Amino acid sequence: MEGETYAALNQPGVGWLSMIIIGLIAGWLAEKVTESQHGLFANLFFGLIGAFLGKYLAEMASVPIFGFFRTLIAATIGAIIVLFLWRKIRGR
């Protein structure tokens, strides 16, 4: 990956606009999986937090995360975990 530009989350090929799109999609997917009802901004928030968590978990498991789709998968898994924990803390 020599010579590639690193942007959001140090992922090659994923810039800030792409990361916002990934966050929205991941938050929406996590909302559907956990059967929650949130708005657009909550989906973005949970998706972006999930992206950071997913990246961290992937690094711990030595799974390479790069590009749009792998980042989307990691972000979705992270967002599902974050929403699950949020619902446990809130008691719903």
Molecular structure report:
The chain is mainly α and 92 residues long. The protein has one domain (12-90). The protein has helices spanning 16-33, 40-60, 67-90. α1 (16-33) packs across α2 (40-60) and α1 (16-33) crosses α3. The termini are far apart.
The largest sheet, given as strand count, sense and whether it forms a barrel, is: none
Give the C-alpha Rg: 13 Å
Structural class: mainly alpha
Percentage of residues in strands: under 5%
Count of all domains: 1
Shape estimate: globular
Q: Supply the number of helical segments.
A: 3
Overall pLDDT level: 83
Order of helices and strands: HHH
The helix content is: 55-70%
How far is it from the N-terminal to the C-terminal residue, by CA?
A: 44 Å
Number of strands: 0
| Low-pLDDT regions | none
List keywords for this structure.
92 residues; 0% strand; mainly alpha
